[in-house]
Amino acid sequence: MAGVTFSNAFTSDNSAPAHPAILEAVIAANNANASSYGDDEVTARAAALIRDEFDSPEAEVLFALTGTGANVIALTAATRPWHTILCSDIAHVLVDEAGGPARVSGAMLTVLPSDDGLIDPAELDRVASRRGPVHHSQPTIVTITQSTENGRLWTPQAIKHFVDTAHANDLLVHVDGARIANAIAALGVPPLEAIADADIISVGGTKNGLLFGDAILVRRPELFDGINFVQKQLGHLPSKHRFVSAQFEALFTDGRWLELAAHANTMAARLSTGLTRLGLQLASPTEANEVFVVLDPPTHAKVAGHYALHAPDPLRPIYRLVCSWATTEEEVDSVLNLLGGA
Ligand SMILES: Cc1ncc(COP(=O)(O)O)c(C=O)c1O
Predict the structure, then answer these.
(1) Residue span of the structural domain in which 193 resides
(2) Final residue of a domain: which of 190, 225, 251?
(3) What is the DSSP letter of 107?
(4) Going by CA atoms, what residue is nearest to atom 6 of ligand 1?
(5) 20 to 30 A from 206, CA-CA: which of 185, 250, 316, 327?
(6) pLDDT of 242-291, one tens digit each?
């Protein structure tokens, strides 16, 4: 198609540029010397904003350089090597972190079946009942993803029931919130309702307009003893910490994190509706900023020369299109025009 150049616009939300307000915040933080390793005022302000947004005054907030880092730090601080971490069959911690959580924590992962990453709470009763005998790894924490790897939402009711069931089974709950802002914006609820009473949350920044950086909201610090040491050991405590924190301060000021996420969701809805109108089949319902569509080889060939699309499962013709704060209506319409063309 004339005028369309090869683009990563839909490959992932981390292929998007950083938002200008984030870059301005980094430049503004570059005005003087400051205490290192997070012992600075910008970090204190950013942490307070995140605590406030999640209505979690007792929480500690740490920052990591990547989402994988945030997940590995959280899960390692929760476990001992004879523990097991429960996760869904499509969890990023299972499939896309090169075994990091298992290697670093020493705990194993126990995979639970799911519907697009949404796990039936009854699975927790089943697995936790195996706790006790010295022969078995001991279930200790369950991790879920909001919104899930397949772009699905845990509703406030569903996540509350899940977290309550986990706690009733003496399990801690970690939420991988790489896309938590998209979930909250889509659900239209106060942030705390999107995580229920979970114990520790990876709060995404990278996919929502930062240069890089994901936060860890430790809602029950007493249950994650030593987490600061884990963060340091793994190299996620940058000495020039204020430049990570300045990004978060800008993101969490005046609701920007939800505004950017809402835009991404709106673009995904436009794309999803357009794909359906073209008669294409969605592989999962579009609920946040990720769209999964079935494309046979001739149909995929219509876009392949113009847009790099991720295929999460090499054995199935399903393509993922992710929208970000930077996605434009023109980009969405250009994909639809390509797919709808001869
Ligand atoms: C659900 C989920 N969790 C965590 C991450 C980790 O992010 P990073 O690539 O920054 O390590 C990603 C990134 O794709 C993700 O999709």
Answers:
(1) 20-251
(2) 251
(3) -
(4) 67
(5) 316
(6) 999 999 999 999 999 999 999 999 999 999 999 999 999 999 999 999 99
